[in-house]
Amino acid sequence: MSCVRAVRGLAPVCGFQPLAVLSRGVSFSPHQVASDASFHSVSFSESDHPRVLITGGLGQLGVGLAKLLRKQFGKYNVILSDIRKPPAHVYQSGPFIYSDILDYKNLREIVVNNRISWLIHYSVLLSAVGEANVSLARDVNITGLHNILDITAEHGLRLFIPSTIGAFGPTSPRDPTPDLCIQRPRTIYGVSKVHAELMGEYYHHRYGLDFRCLRYPGIISADSKPGGGTTDYAVQIFHDAVKAGRFVCNLRPDTRLPMMFIDDCLRATLEVLEAPPETLGMRTYNISAMSFTPEELVQEIRRHLPDLQVTYEIDPVRQAIADSWPMVLDDSSARSDWGWKHNYGLPELVQTMLNLTGSDSRKARAN
Ligand SMILES: NC(=O)c1ccc[n+]([C@@H]2O[C@H](COP(=O)([O-])OP(=O)(O)OC[C@H]3O[C@@H](n4cnc5c(N)ncnc54)[C@H](O)[C@@H]3O)[C@@H](O)[C@H]2O)c1
């Protein structure tokens, strides 16, 4: 069989399909100019460490993940990529490369030229942004995903793709939501994430792709801004509380959603990436830390900032999305299969976020 047949043209076969058949009809010359020509110091020496590429790395989660992975595997073994221009501190902190996941050939060059062995696929349009631009979300979240799947299967990479609480919908059980249940999301973001879960698992069974996936709750971080999701309020409230002493919440006070502090999320990602394959009973796991409502979060923050004023101006798009999502995620499989355990509950989260956002705003005032 030809090595350059598109996966869509394959006749079904039993068992694993050799990875080589996944190659698309893209010509590649070893003499072409490397896409990483701008890096000066990427090490090409052999080592036991994986060579990691993070797509969509300039969003809320990528820079923090790169920092954690660089500590573990070495600065030059972890490449951040995105279509945006990196801020100076990110550019100076380690390798960065432009990569548009819709450009299959460019992505393939980056993987080949940098001997990438793990790919962490973060590029996405999140829930609220996706509803505002469905056709772009379909391109990035679905067409881009297909590029990633083909390239990682073709080159034998380990692939991590985060999924989300948004992969569930109003007909899923909401309290708690198990790993396996009805998934009929009503956002393009959720639909594309269910597609990613299923396609990753399909490529795993059909082609042996080492696909790993965690369904993240809403992630809360201090030094990186959220990118247009439904849980963004739980980040913004800390900045507004510290700076202005007041906050306008766009979700109803009783909207319960699963949430996690960024350090727990990034550690879980590293843990599942490093887990020996035999410990993984599944390829897609729920992970969880806590669930709270805006009202409960406000009460906890008021223990530190008693004068915080909060008003509610409900955004109907975000509220409808939140009302269709899980209230509590059941992550018992992650806990029993590979030992997942969160460190931050609500009190620890609030204390840490207030410390971090408070010191940021003190720094800003001093400058
Ligand atoms: N942040 C959360 O609360 C949360 C919760 C659940 C799941 N996740 C998942 O985690 C991952 C990272 O999330 P995030 O919050 O950092 O997202 P984000 O929206 O902050 O960042 C996404 C990045 O993707 C980039 N991007 C967009 N189009 C691209 C393209 N064509 N090619 C390359 N890059 C492109 C953007 O420039 C952006 O920097 C996503 O897959 C998301 O679904 C996040």
UniProtKB/TrEMBL annotation:
Q: Provide the NAD-dependent epimerase/dehydratase domain boundaries.
A: 52-287
What's the Enzyme Commission number for this chain?
1.1.1.103
The record, for CDD domains, names: TDH_SDR_e
Recorded GO molecular functions are:
L-threonine 3-dehydrogenase activity
Query: Can you supply a Gene Ontology BP term from the record?
Result: L-threonine catabolic process
Q: Which residues form a coiled coil?
A: none
Q: Which reaction does it catalyse?
A: L-threonine + NAD(+) = (2S)-2-amino-3-oxobutanoate + NADH + H(+)
| Family matches, as InterPro entries | Epimerase_deHydtase, NAD(P)-bd_dom_sf, NAD(P)_epim/dehydratase
Pathway as given in its UniProt record: Amino-acid degradation; L-threonine degradation via oxydo-reductase pathway; glycine from L-threonine: step 1/2
One Pfam family it belongs to: Epimerase
Which family does the record claim for this protein? Belongs to the NAD(P)-dependent epimerase/dehydratase family.
Q: What does this protein do?
A: Catalyzes the NAD(+)-dependent oxidation of L-threonine to 2-amino-3-ketobutyrate, mediating L-threonine catabolism.
**Record-linked PANTHER family:** L-THREONINE 3-DEHYDROGENASE, L-THREONINE 3-DEHYDROGENASE, MITOCHONDRIAL
Q: Output this protein's name.
A: L-threonine 3-dehydrogenase, mitochondrial
Quick one: which gene encodes this? LOC107594144
